[in-house]
Amino acid sequence: MKSLALLGVSALFLLSACGGDSDSATSPAKSSSADMEVATYEMLPSCAEKREGKTAYVKDQDQGYICQNKKWVESDDAVEVYPSSTSASVEKNSISDGYFTDSRDGQKYRTVTIGTQTWMAENLNFKTEYSYCYNDSAEYCSKYGRLYIWAVAVGIGMVDGGYNDIEAIPSGNGVCPSDWHLPSDTEWNILINTVGDTIIGVKWTAGTVLKSVSGWYWYEDSNGTDAFSFSALPAGYRYGSGNFYYEGNIAVFWSSTQNGKTDASAIRLDDFGYAILFESNMLSGYSVRCLKD
Question: Which one of 87, 114, 138 terminates a domain?
């Protein structure tokens, strides 16, 4: 698979939340003197040997910590305070949550506004032909949503499933409900750029901050921080041959952008915190996140 864009090219093993709540102009914000920032103490990664001497700020406690002898120890010296108005990350970290009910089947989805975009914060679970539950088991559809081939995701017939020199994606919603659509490469890149910039002085990869805080289990610290409430889950994927792979390890979402006769773009989030836009065969079964028109 040919990479089109790669955000965060080095693996990131320290996971934390990135200060998803914006502060008022008069309230203080913690500076980047701490190595990481998390929402609650429970979200701190393990104080392993590789983190000896690393510092953290726990937002709900307004407390700094330092990793010493395999334990997180309170330390006010690790954190400085400056006015939040000087933080360039406040606007980008501003998010708002809501809900949307799909009139087609009555399913309710959480939504989130990140920057200028409003996304479904859950994978689509609308049943269509050529959409699948992982391992063909309904329990995975309830957990992760459905896996769609590209033709269904963009709303074109199976005969035109990318093999007839289509020049442009047909207009419309595709598998998404009315007023929502499958995002293009450009729209995915807007999201990645919004969440992937420097946050509180630390360079977090986009994949880490978009992933859910649980459910990723390839290795210790595979989970994300979900700093923007996007809550990407490791739904795995389906090969065109019908085999399923990597549930718990990888999330892949379709883009509406086509690349040649048989390939289209998709974005992959994996255990290492990467967000990778790549080309994939259109008959693969991937998750769908809808974007508000």
Answer: 87
Q: Residues 131, 116: contact at Cβ < 8 Å?
A: no
Ranges of H-type helices in 226-275? none
Boundary of a domain, candidates 55, 87, 119: 87
* Residue 286 token pair: 């991937």
How many Å apart are CA 260 and CA 281, to the nearest integer? 10
pLDDT tens column, 212-267:
998 988 766 788 888 889 999 999 999 999 999 999 999 999 999 998 888 999 99
- 154 sits in which H/E element: helix 150-154
Task: Note whether 282 and 161 are within 8 A (CB).
Answer: yes
Angle CA 123–251–173, to nearest 5: 40
Which amino acid would we find at residue 201?
G
Q: Is residue 5 part of a domain?
A: no
Q: Which residues pair with 232 in a beta bridge?
A: 211
Q: What are phi and psi of 200, to 5 degrees?
A: 50, 40
Does residue 116 belong to any structural domain of this protein? yes
Question: How does DSSP classify residue 211?
Answer: B
- Between the alpha carbon of residue 68 and those of residues 31, 48, 71, 261, the distances in Å are 21, 9, 5, 56
Contact at 8 Å (CB) between 216 and 224?
yes
Instruction: Indicate if 112 and 213 belong to the same structural domain.
Output: yes
| Radius of gyration of the chain from its Cα atoms, rounded to whole angstroms | 20
| Residue 24, domain extent | 16-87
Q: Say how far apart CA 155 and CA 264 lie, in whole Å.
A: 14
Beta carbons of 89 and 114 less than 8 angstroms apart: no
Report d(CA 289, CA 171) in Å as an integer: 17
pTM: 0.66
Comparing C-alpha atoms, which of 291, 45, 36, 80 is closest to residue 187? Answer: 291
